[in-house]
Amino acid sequence: MTHSPTKPTPLFPAPEWTSVSAQMAAQLAHEIRNPLLSIKGAAQLLEKVVSAEDKTLADYDPSLPNVAGLREPLIQVLLNLIKNAVDAVEKIANPTITITTRYLVGESMQRTGGRKLPVAISITDNGVGVPAELEARLFTPFTTTKPSGKGLGLAIVARIVEEHGGLIAHDRPAVGGARFTVYLPLFVA
To answer: Residue 182: beta bridge partners?
Structure first.
């Protein structure tokens, strides 16, 4: 797939601004109501991208409620985490990537002084894992383990998750590899 940049053009002439604002508000309301589509969409995209000989597991909680969030940024978060997992298992004999969603009733994460974050989305791989010396600054810009990496992916992911009122965490599964979990608040009408 190739990407060709487009020429920048003015977004909206001044007289159309009110109409555009109304359209943007309507789109925003739609995106807030439908953020789970981004989770399912990212998982479906992964299933299309991963070849048949690769092992992919999905574990979705059917009771998952709607979360507060915008579709495109959440897709970016999930695709970045999935891409990192794919990169991590690239040279593994039996690569496994697991996508898990959970509704953490009664045990949700909570931001300091903030609201509860009962929706958890985890991307787990059995790849090389994150070196211990990088764990403390994993979400800091310009931190990378990739030879050609810029070190911006996880920093952007963390910023988007925080802008959605959520948290992102990293841990090491018992079987090795890495697990990144995004915790998000519920959508409240």
So the answer is: 121, 168
Say how far apart CA 116 and CA 111 lie, in whole Å: 7
Lookup result for tokens 């911006």: 152
Residue 93: CB atoms within 10 Å: 6
Q: State how many domains the chain has.
A: 1
3-state secondary structure of 116: strand
pTM: 0.69
Please report how the helices 71-88 and 36-49 are oriented relative to each other, as an axis angle in degrees rounded to 10: 30
- Structural domain harbouring 43: 36-184
Tens of pLDDT, residue by residue over 83-115, are 899 888 888 888 888 888 888 877 667 666 677
* 32 — pLDDT class (breaks 50, 70, 90): very low
CB 127 within 8 A of CB 85: yes
Q: Is 135 helix (H, G, I), strand (E, B) or coil?
A: helix
The tokens for 35 are 């953020």
In the block, which residue shows the tokens 């990739």?
Answer: 146
